Amino acid sequence: MSRCAAIKPNGERCKVEAIPDAQWCWSHHPDYQQARQRRASKAGKRGGRGRPVSELARLGARFEELADKVLCGEIERGVGAVVGQLLNGARACVRDGLLAREQEELVSRMEAIEAALEEQKSERRYGA
Questions:
Q1: Which residue has the higher pLDDT, 121 or 80?
Q2: Pick from 55, 50, 49: which is nearest to 94 by CA?
Q3: For residues 15 and 55, what is the distance between their CA atoms, to the nearest angstrom?
Q4: Half-sphere CA count of 102, side-chain side, radius 13 A
Q5: What's the whole-number mean pLDDT along residues 89-99?
Q6: 17: phi then psi, degrees, rounded to nearest 5
Q7: Dihedral of CA 75/80/84/90: which sign?
Q8: Long-range CB pairs of 55-64, under 8 A, 24+ apart, other chains included
Q9: Could you please report the per-residue DSSP string of 51-117?
Q10: Which of 40, 69, 108, 109 is the most buried (most CB within 10 A)?
Q11: CB-side exposure of 37: number of CA atoms within 13 Å?
Q12: Is residue 81 pLDDT above 80, yes or no?
């Protein structure tokens, strides 16, 4: 396999292997520019894995604060129970959002793997 022929912005040559029958790697091949732009436009919009954790920590702190206020009599038990249920609903939404994001990531990774396998199969058929 040959190395990618692209020159990076710092003047250094790309060290990644080129795609078979091409002179560039996936990151520099002009045919994949739109796919790279689509992926880059999604960057940072999903929130990453840190936001749900901080949101769950914030909800946990609110649960503790609520429990303390109910125990010291500052908040009536019935009101505290309803607020606890509402906070629990918010926690479930955060958890479900995280699970949905993880599922989306897995699906996109599987689709990329399947596309790579199909490409390998077609290369074997035509290259034989």
A1: 80
A2: 55
A3: 40
A4: 9
A5: 88
A6: -70, 140
A7: negative
A8: 55/94, 56/91, 56/94, 56/95, 59/87, 59/90, 59/91, 59/94, 62/87, 63/87
A9: HHHHHHHHHHHHHHHHHHHHHTTSS-HHHHHHHHHHHHHHHHHHHHHHHHHHHHHHHHHHHHHHHHH
A10: 69
A11: 6
A12: yes
Q: What is the C-alpha separation between 79 and 70, in angstroms, rounded? A: 9
SS (H, E, C) 15-60: CCECCCCCCCCCCCCHHHHHHHHHHHHHCCCCCCCHHHHHHHHHHH
The 10s digit of each residue's pLDDT in 54-68 is 788 888 889 899 899
| Amino acid at the residue 110 | M
Name every residue whose Cβ is closer than 8 Å to that of residue 106 and which is 6 or more positions away in sequence. none
In three-state secondary structure terms, 127 is: helix
Would you kindly state where each structural domain of the chain is located, as residue ranges? 1-43, 48-127
What one-character DSSP code corresponds to residue 10? Answer: T
For 18, what's the count of Cα atoms within 13 Å in the CB-facing half-sphere?
15
